[in-house]
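Researcher: I'm preparing a figure for a lab meeting and need a structural model of a single chain. I don't have an experimental structure, so a prediction will have to do for now. The sequence is pasted below. Please return the structure as tokens so I can convert it later.
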Amino acid sequence: MDFIFLDYTTLRVIWWLLLGVLLVGFAVMDGFDLGVGTLLPFVARTDEERRLVINTVGPVWEGNQVWLVLGGGAIFAAWPPLYAVSFSGFYLAMFVILFALILRPVGFKYRGKLQSQAWRDNWDRALFVGGFVPALIMGVAVGNVLLGVPFHFDDTQRVFYTGSFFGLLTPFALLAGLLSVAMLVAHGASMLVLKTDGPVAERSARLGSIAALISFVLFAAGGAGVALGLPGYAITSQVVTDGASNPLLKSVAITAAGGWLHNYSTMPATLLAPATGLLGALAAAVLLRRRRGGLAFIASGASIAGIILTVGFAAFPFLLPSSSQPGSSLVAWDASSSHLTLWIMLLATVLLLPIVIAYTIWVYRVLKGKTTLQEMGENPNAY
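Model: Understood. Here is the structure written out token by token.
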């Protein structure tokens, strides 16, 4: 098609990169909301302090979820087989995540409707669940990307998932889940130190620093596990990067332990990702101890981006390996939408993504500054 100025392979790589950007955007922008929710029972001891914590994210949490919508939309439109396998095989896990995420808006809206302390305590617990559970299960899902998932296609490309929800909860996947919780808690703590003063900020700095150190240790332990004990996946047939989107046209083998490190040896620049993940976590821990909320937020955000990109660079070109039938694994070269669809979506993204970024920056500029009890008392829209 003469009006498509990029070849199929290039568009597939661009959309693989864009998927990574959107996942990082969700983890950084909506991740601190989840972290704040997880921290709520531990940094706020009175009703006033809990309202203070909730109102640090109250004005922005809905806007931050646009990154979740964009990420889900990108998977649906650019990588249809990945969407089909994920949302059918991981149905129960997705339901648990969505149920927990639904608790957040309900908790925000209903918490202040009654003066009863028991009523408010119950909704505070719901906000905790709405922060902790999605962070944990999303991390478990990422861990299973490296482990491989039991699914396969038949000759008509119907997908069959042969695993179970509890089968996803392996030790390595749970480590990834706890890493996700720790890094988002550190990120949420950075936001609380930035936006609050007094006892809430002090507790947030202390707990966030501990969480950042835990994320450093878990990320390092996960890396050691991948290098020393976790097998990888490799395409053993001829690699056709611009061929038809049919996962059954290739052959894949499970490699020896350390197989996921191949890309790091052939593309040394990708080592910047794990280095950023580790150094960002350490920097966040130090900065939180020093009550430098803004710099800690940048450091924890960089750590999150580094950790997510580490997984992406290690797995490329795999999107979702199959542990039960490796040949059914989804890779960037055989699980995308058509050439035309990827091109039209790229044009729409070039037009719309800057608008999303621009209004996000504007909102945060308008809402900059500390959240205080006095401000909440003067704001009729405060939770």
